[in-house]
Structure formats: structure tokens, C-alpha cells
Amino acid sequence: MWTNLINNPPLATLVAALLALAACFWLSRAAYVLPRTIDPDIPLQVPAWHFRIRKLFMALGPLIAALFCWFFGSSVAALASIGFMLVLLSLAWIDAETSLLPDRLTLSLLWAGLLVNLNNTFVPLEHAVLGAAIGYLFLWLLYQIFLRLTQSEGMGFGDFKLVAALGAWLGWMSLPILLVFATALSLVVVLVQRLRGKHKTGNLIRFGPYLALAGIIGMLERWL
């Protein structure tokens, strides 16, 4: 998992960038199709900023892959890390635009994390399994408590599955710091928006982008 597949760094970087470009093309298509498969009421016509995000995503993905491969090599572990980050970026995009986290991406990411850690790549397999289970159950319990206290939903089930996926990749011991970071960041952003008059009490907080950023940072810590 940690042996370079291509020992020529420039060639490996080029291959990684091309693979990332292909992945970004599919993921950008998924960012449009999957939410509308889940909710047919989402308009077929996207806002103008959707295309700006798409262009940024298509440029950022290969750049991330090239830089990651150049600094950390072309091992299976490195390529898996690149894929992990690209999927998280696409989930952040989808959630920010539609408030949805499609199962096809979150559950695929979860299973991929368990498979990658079969050989204890990032964490021992038992830590990955516990991470998936604890990540889901912890947020589910919070959801149930909040629902009974307020009679409203504090988060979506997609958030549970995304946290479970992060636990599968990074292990159960990483979850507390990831959740604290994501929660703190979301509160700071909401506070800034409220001060600027752009966030009203009762508005839904889209937690996916903050979880995605926490997951990306958590993965980078494995390499730095």
C-alpha cells in the first residue's frame, strides 16, 4: 500500500493529475444528477455559481492530486487519499448547494475506508470499524435527543453517514477532534453571517462542508 506504483515522480504526478481530472469530471456530473435523483423538486436549471464551482473543482482536483503525488509518492495509499479528498470536496459542494449528502457517495466512501484499512493502512481495521459504528450512532443519538427536546430535526441522516465514513478512514479516536473542529467552524461561520444579516434564527446549518474540511485536514495530518 505504501510502495510507489510509478518510480518516476514527474510521470507519476502527471498520471495522478489525469486520473483526478477524470474523477472530477464524474463527480461534477454526480453533483448535478444525484441530488435531483433524490429530490425531483430540485430545479433542473442550476444557479450561475454552480458553473463557477464546477470550474474551480475541475481545476482544484488535478492540482491537489499532482501536489500530493509529488510530495508523498504514487503509492496505493496516496492515491486512496487523493480519492478520499476529492469525494469529500464533491460532498461539500453538493451539501452547500442542495442540503443533501447522497448515499451513493457517503456509503461508497464508508466502504472504501474499511477496505483501504484492511491492511491497517491509516488505522487498524478494528479502529476503522469502530469509527464507522461510533460515528453513525453518536450523531444519531444527538439527533434523537434534539428531536425530542425541540420537536425539530437538528441535522440530516446524510451527516451521520458522512461521519461514519470519516471514522472508517481515520479511526474512532479521530472523531472527537474532527467533530469539535467542524462544529466550532460552523458556529464561527454562522456567527459571522448573523452579524452581516445573512443568517436568520432557524435557518438550516449545512454541516457537510465543515465535516468534509475536517476530514481533509485529518487525512493530511496522516502524511505531514
Short characterization:
This is A24 family peptidase. It is built from 8 helices and no strands. It is mostly helical.
Describe the structure.
It is a single chain. The longest helix has 30 residues, at 9-38. The protein has 8 helices and no strands. The protein has helices spanning 9-38, 48-72, 76-98, 103-116, 125-150, 157-170, 175-195, 208-223. Helix content is 75%, strand content 0%. The chain has one domain (9-223). The model has no long low-confidence stretch (mean pLDDT 93). Residues 84-190 form the Prepilin type IV endopeptidase peptidase domain. Keywords: Membrane, Transmembrane, Transmembrane helix. This is A24 family peptidase. It holds the Pfam family Peptidase_A24.
User: How much of the sequence is in beta strands?
Assistant: under 5%
Q: Which blocks of ≥5 consecutive residues have pLDDT under 50? A: none
Instruction: Provide the succession of SSEs.
Output: HHHHHHHH
Number of strands: 0
How many domains? The number is: 1
Shape: globular
The number of helical runs is 8
Main beta-sheet annotation: none
Mean of all residue-level pLDDT scores: 93
Quaternary state of this entry equals single chain
Measured as a percent range, the helix fraction is over 70%
Secondary-structure-derived class: mainly alpha
What is the rounded distance between the termini? Answer: 17 Å
